[in-house]
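User: I've been going back and forth on whether these two constructs are worth ordering. Before I decide, could you fold them both?

Assistant: Sure. I'll take them in the order you sent them. The first construct and its structure tokens:
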Amino acid sequence: MVAMAPAHAMLACLGGGVLAAHAVPALAQPLPRIGDLLGVERRVPGPAAVALTFDDGPHPQATEQVLEVLRARRATATFFLVGEQAVRHGGAAAEVAAAGHAIGVHGFRHRNLLRLTPAQTVDDLRRGRAAVAEATGLDPWVYRPPYGVLSGGALREARRRRWRVVLWSRWGRDWRADATAGSVCTLVVAGLAGRDVVLLHDADHYAAAGSWRATVGALPRILDAIQDAGLVTVRL
């Protein structure tokens, strides 16, 4: 028999109600109605607004190139930073803040929260916030869990901190090894409309090596599509 990891062993001992409270928030992304009931956001106000969001950074090369495209197009975005990467690449994190973009927390490490105990989750969010605040000089108040998988512990801690929990309504699947600038752009812009929250990545720390290049290549085309549709980018 394979030994169970500590967190899995803990979950195996939980009663059905406790387990549901832990796991049901993970359905907020695939089942938007559940997200609505839990107060999890995936849209922005304003019929002409689109929120570009970037997860998993900062990255010493990718973040800089994404910032350059946004700067050239006078577009704004929100970056959900991973605490351990903000520690490693503090200069890139500081550049995001200096450019005027919104800063969010993506945790300290990039882990599936369903595999963590509530105490481990609280510690991860605490360390993530501290690392992001230290690197950027800003106290973040928006949060997105890794993989979009929210747990009961993370939701409670986010509420305690008065963070907005924001997932997404469109994505480019730009973390994949087979992603191209064309594929990322097509997925994002097909049916793009006001109030959409777009998920992209400005790093490959937890994805296929070099996948961020597809994101950088797609970004100007995505911004063209937003402008052509009469929409504007907004920060969360």
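The second construct, handled the same way:
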Amino acid sequence: MADQTLKTIHPWLQENDTKVSSGGTVKSYSHDLGSGPVLCVVHGWPQSAYMWRHVIASWKDSISLFIVELPGYGFSSLPPAHDKRTVGTLILEALQQVFPSRPVVWCGHDRGARIGHRMIVDNDPKHNITSAILIDIVPTKEQWAAFANPLASVAYYHWPFLAIPTAPQLIEGFNSGPGEFTRINLSRAQGANSAGVAKFREDLAIDHYAHQFTNPECVAGSCGDYAAGATTDVEAQEKDQREGRKVSVPLMVVYSAGSLGRMHNVEKVWGGWVDGKAGKEVRFEGIGDEFGHYLPEECPEKIVGLVGEWIGKYGK
């Protein structure tokens, strides 16, 4: 069952393979209420759309869903470039083919949240992103700056490692293979809450992610994601800050108090990246109880509640 997908658990989803302008294909799962905004749900590393399996059923009657497989992570095609703007544009291009002319509420975790951050700062009217939920990140530039703290450097060692040109070969050459490398890194970021860990591992999730990363294209694509995160993405954020471009749509940042919150004053950090003059809601929700990075899997009921409230306000 290592090759199960989100549709295995939720057969009510429609599976889409959408051709995009890069010449590749974006795989997604969707559920259409027929009108209104679409919740664009985007996963991170080292995972797939499968990470949303515990939460999406609770939202299916309140908002249309577009749950994407990140380009370059083994299910969608490799993108022509791995920077967040290029990947985000491909995702929204696919969404607009499945849901023409619909407003978008972005909900991203980890790398999916970083893509969302890029897109809401760009604030391109044709993308029609009306609000966003970003889960367990601070801005990329701020994360790199935190590496001056030795504890942060160790906790997030994979950032510089995955960004080096030889990372794919090193992962492929790992003693027990890239699947075992994936298992180790998933265990490192999970929380200490035993019930949360058990929930995270339900439905053979670790087997799914480990199997996904046995695909050399997935290894190469995800490393490309981190390489862009060390170069093009940081350069774009530096330019944003110099020129005063910040988040100007309603934003909720949800984070693990014991993981991301241990390394950062999350609310203070984000304060420098949000346009206070825009008059839009900015909300911060730290989740404690020793839950770790994988919040939609470790404490799905908390994510269901928070996102459900946001949908009630911005998903109509």
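Notes on the second construct follow. The mean pLDDT is 96. Residues 46 and 140 are 17 Å apart (CA to CA).
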